[in-house]
Write a structure and sequence with these properties.
globular, 12 strands, binds pyridoxal-5'-phosphate, Aspartate Aminotransferase, domain 1, alpha/beta, seven-stranded mixed sheet, 2 domains
């Protein structure tokens, strides 16, 4: 079977070597040596100053919303993983869906201002597949209306725009280090904050608001990363550039073997140093997507419908169907993410491309 992704694992020995210190110290969690090392190593890799590790990327989103004190309506994208919307709902805020740009598949900045009301407190947008949102435009809209900006950068680890890490924008950027992501710690995540005060708040929120002894400063939760997870992150981080390079190769092979095929691809803006997190292809219509998907499954190839359904149609929204997002809804019916992982061979990519050609 060829899955959409396969977790890159270090050798067992590499992991044990890194984890040795945990056995020596006996400290398994609570901001131990591994978490502190990973915090500075990831900060350095991304070139950011204020980063807090979290137990996963969903709590990273939730705590970013909390730390920025967002209440009321949050303008967001209908085209992302479900966690983006769930975090807004779980924090008691209201998602206001704004359609996506058909070129970048990120939130369409031209539609944001019309969605702003007196209850709007912020914008939560995803750099979907690692392609950047219209960061400059979003920033100027936010400034004009006094809104906070959070970027869900779960797909963007290692990606850069004009030399700056894609995790360095907005009031907060959140990351996921889940096993399916390009850089992982099995489970894990982080929030990058522009303001050191927000970073301090994130630190407190992620550990019960505990400030030592029997003192609790604010309502907190447990979103701490464990030492065992941080050790995995420490072993994986030096491999990230090699992982990106291998994925770039896969992406080139797809480009080559899919040439002339009637499939659209998201638009990469100038100045983007892409991380090759995904290889999405967009079909002309839902029928041809489903046909191709069935053919691939017949050959034991398992692409995924990232991202389906459009989040504005989720059944558990207060009023599903309240926001109409025709571009995102159509995209969600026509897109497939093709298999993409370190170790995927050109042979397999040729086979996948051949199947796609045959039903095109
Ligand atoms: C994976 C993902 C998340 C959630 O991250 P977890 O670490 O799995 O909680 C959030 N947003 C997006 C866009 C994701 O792809």
């Amino acid at each position: 079977m060829i899955p959409v992704t396969r977790t890159f694992l270090p050798t067992f020995e590499e992991y044990m070597e890194q984890a040795k210190g945990i056995w020596e110290s006996g400290q398994l969690t609570n901001n131990g040596a591994q978490v502190r090392s990973l915090t500075s190593a990831v900060s350095q890799y991304l070139g950011v100053s204020h980063l807090e590790l979290m137990s996963n990327g969903t709590l990273a989103l939730q705590l970013a919303i909390r730390a920025l004190d967002l209440r009321g309506e949050i303008i967001t994208t209908p085209f992302s993983y479900v966690a983006t919307t769930n975090a807004i709902l779980w924090e008691g805020c209201e998602p206001v869906f704004v359609d996506i740009d058909p070129q970048t598949l990120c939130i369409d900045p031209r539609l944001i201002e019309a969605a702003i009301t007196d209850k709007t407190c912020g914008i939560l947008a995803t750099h979907v597949y690692g392609y950047p949102c219209a960061i400059e435009t979003i920033e100027s809209i936010a400034k004009k209306h006094g809104l906070k900006v959070i970027y869900d950068a779960a797909h963007a680890f290692g990606g850069k725009l004009n030399g700056s890490s894609l995790a360095s924008f907005g009031d907060c950027s959140t990351l996921s280090f889940h096993a399916t992501k390009l850089f992982h710690s099995a489970e894990g995540g982080a929030v990058v904050a522009a303001d050191p005060e927000v970073a301090r708040k994130l630190f407190l929120l992620s550990r019960f608001g505990h400030i030592g002894e029997d003192n609790y400063l604010c309502l907190g939760i447990n979103a701490k990363m464990s030492e065992l997870h941080a050790a995995m992150g420490m072993v994986m981080l030096p491999k990230v550039d090699q992982i990106i390079a291998a994925r770039r190769q896969c992406s080139f092979w797809y480009d080559e073997h899919l040439q002339g095929c009637h499939l659209a691809r998201p638009h990469a803006p100038e100045g983007l140093e892409y991380n090759y997190a995904y290889y999405p292809v967009v079909f002309d219509d839902a029928r041809s997507m489903k046909l191709a998907l069935a053919k691939l499954i017949e050959h034991d190839i398992r692409p995924r419908r990232y991202f389906h359904p459009a989040l504005n149609t989720l059944p558990f929204l207060e009023q599903p169907g309240r926001y109409s997002c025709p571009v995102a809804e159509s995209m969600a019916e026509r897109v497939l993410s093709l298999p993409m992982f370190v170790g995927l061979t050109e042979e397999s990519i040729k086979q996948i491309s051949g199947i796609l050609r045959s039903c095109n």
